């Protein structure tokens, strides 16, 4: 995920500002609409309770953490990009008590008044305390992981017996055709790692195999995509008519 780290370290300020602007604007934006629907679905599937200890792996903009705080009084977040964590601290959650630390256990004990604890860490080399979190989330993160099976094994190694890991992945056979087109560009050498994010895609069959090999049980699986077409069209028509 070094490509992702370098990319977000360079673009963190603009990236976070872009999503915050879309979050605040009243006009319809398709990109934010889909991202918001994905986030809402993940939060619904997480079934976070008040006393749950929750961590988001790859917290990025901090928008998911902000929603999690409405359900529980304290949240944890990791990201491979230290610069993204700074943006969460000084922008998205600037009205909250946010601490960036190198170790969650020490920070949790030392900063009891903190609402948000952040740590620079990538899912490919996960460094979390074992049996510590009730819920673990990754929203639009695993598509940037080159060795997904290893990453899932890392997550499984620190999970509690009764904990949940809720994450999103991108289907290679997506109706958008983006994964297929991106993969063809990569094969032809047209993808430039120094200018864009490298992305990796899976099939339902492969992700189920990875999870099984990691010792994880699938308790809920949802497909997202065309089911949002109808509300998307309605919102577009309403926006154009206004």
Question: Strands, helices and their partners?
Answer:
Elements: H1 2-24, H2 30-46, E1 54-57, H3 63-68, E2 75-79, H4 82-92, E3 98-100, H5 104-110, E4 116-120, E5 135-138, H6 148-158, E6 164-167, H7 178-187, H8 204-213, H9 229-241
In the CATH classification, which architecture applies? 3-Layer(aba) Sandwich
- Elements, N to C (H/E): HHEHEHEHEEHEHHH
**Average predicted local confidence, pLDDT:** 88
**β-strand number:** 6
Strand order of the largest sheet: 3-4-2-1-5-6
CATH class category name: Alpha Beta
Q: What would the principal axes of the Cα set say about the shape?
A: globular
Question: How many helices does DSSP assign?
Answer: 9
CATH-wise, what's the superfamily? Vaccinia Virus protein VP39
In brief:
By secondary structure, the chain is of the alpha/beta class. Helix content is 45%, strand content 10%.
Description:
The protein is an alpha/beta fold and 242 residues long. It has a single domain (2-171, 201-241), classed as 3-Layer(aba) Sandwich (Rossmann fold). Helix content is 45%, strand content 10%. It is built from 9 helices and 6 strands. It has helices at residues 2-24, 30-46, 63-68, 82-92, 104-110, 148-158, 178-187, 204-213, 229-241, and strands at residues 54-57, 75-79, 98-100, 116-120, 135-138, 164-167. A 6-stranded parallel beta sheet has the order 3-4-2-1-5-6, with helices on both faces. Strand 5, helix 6 (148-158) and strand 6 (164-167) form a beta-alpha-beta unit. Helix 1 runs parallel beside helix 4 and helix 6 crosses helix 8. The longest helix has 23 residues, at 2-24. The radius of gyration is 18 Å and the shape is globular.
């Amino acid at each position: 995920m070094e490509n992702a780290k370098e990319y977000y370290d360079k673009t963190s300020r603009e990236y976070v500002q872009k999503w915050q602007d879309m979050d605040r604007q009243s006009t319809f934006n398709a990109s934010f609409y889909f991202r918001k629907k994905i986030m809402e679905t993940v939060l619904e599937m997480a079934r976070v309770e008040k006393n749950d200890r929750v961590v988001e792996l790859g917290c990025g903009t901090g928008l998911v953490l902000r929603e999690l705080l409405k359900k529980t009084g304290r949240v944890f977040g990791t990201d491979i990009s230290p610069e993204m964590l700074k943006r969460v601290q000084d922008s998205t959650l600037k009205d909250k008590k946010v601490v960036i630390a190198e170790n969650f256990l020490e920070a949790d004990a030392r900063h009891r008044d903190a609402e948000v604890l952040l740590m620079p860490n990538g899912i490919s080399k996960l460094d979390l305390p074992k049996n510590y979190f009730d819920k673990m989330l990754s929203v639009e993160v695993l598509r940037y992981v080159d060795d997904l099976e290893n990453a899932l094994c890392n997550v499984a190694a620190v999970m509690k017996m009764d904990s949940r890991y809720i994450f999103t992945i991108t289907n290679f056979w997506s109706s958008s055709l983006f994964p297929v087109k991106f993969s063809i560009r990569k094969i032809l050498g047209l993808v430039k790692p120094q200018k864009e994010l490298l992305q990796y895609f899976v099939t339902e069959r492969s992700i189920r195999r990875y999870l099984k090999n990691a010792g994880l049980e699938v308790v809920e699986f949802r497909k997202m995509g065309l089911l949002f077409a109808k509300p998307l069209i309605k919102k577009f028509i309403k926006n154009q008519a206004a």
